[in-house]
Amino acid sequence: MTKPLKSPLLRATQTALAASIVALVQPVLAQDFIKGGEETLTLNLGGIVNQFDTSVSVNGGGVQGTPINLEGQGLQKSLSSLQASGTWRISERNRVDALYFGAKRSGSRQSTRDITVGGQVIPAGFNVSAETKDQFLVADYRYSFMKSSELELAGLVGLYGGWFDFNVSGAGTRPGAAAPVTIGTSSSTTVPLPIVGASVDWYIQPRWKVSSMLAGMSAHVGSVDGNITVFQLGTDYMFTRNWGVGMSYMYAKLNADVTKSGFNGNLNWSNNSVMLYATAKF
Length: 282
What we know:
Distance between the termini: 62 Å
Number of domains: 1
CATH topology: Lipocalin
Helix content: under 10%
Number of helices: 1
Strand order of the largest sheet: 1-3-4-7-8-9-10-11-12-13
Order of helices and strands: HEEEEEEEEEEEEE
Radius of gyration: 27 Å
CATH architecture: Beta Barrel
CATH superfamily: OMPT-like
CATH class: Mainly Beta
Largest sheet: 10 strands, antiparallel, barrel
């Protein structure tokens, strides 16, 4: 039995399709990717999902405040928001890193105990509402004391800066009272703490990097006496010379006693964060 011959049109179509695929794939395969550790500027923009665990106490009138677990008062434990970060490599072994993100949460729940906040007492049974607005900036300078085409080890010094705004109030009717009352306080503070640590970058390929960082410190800075620990692990993958995607995990824990006019009390805060972002390298 004779096999049918392929028509010239079919052969031409197959040839054109193969040529088109090669034309599309070849530029990607031939990309002159920036080698790891040789980029000048890296910019990241994307989303962050935070899982919070927050306890705050606000003193007032010479009375120590009750530690309040804000997630226990109905605040969202997990929340997504935007994040931005970047790295400027000043020279071969010197670079500056920064990361910024924020969060706003609110919630309410009936209190099962008396709560002392800002020198006032919210009785058990009152409906307690809480709202927080937080902003975070992690910035550091890194010096690479070991650097090769595959591995970069650096020491770092920097600052973990947090801005916290709290509103806590309780509404209800006292026993024997005819009218309901609202009791509460508002306070805000910045919590800047220095960090010292180290980072490692593993350049698996020019287009693929895995990095990690661990830093922290216990310090007394002005009216803030506290400690901070920060750990980060992430990876970037470049699709072209300048554009790619990245994913990172960060854990941070802060415990600070603050004595300022706008806030007098204790802040015990931790979060687990997962970041997914677009990255640009130049």
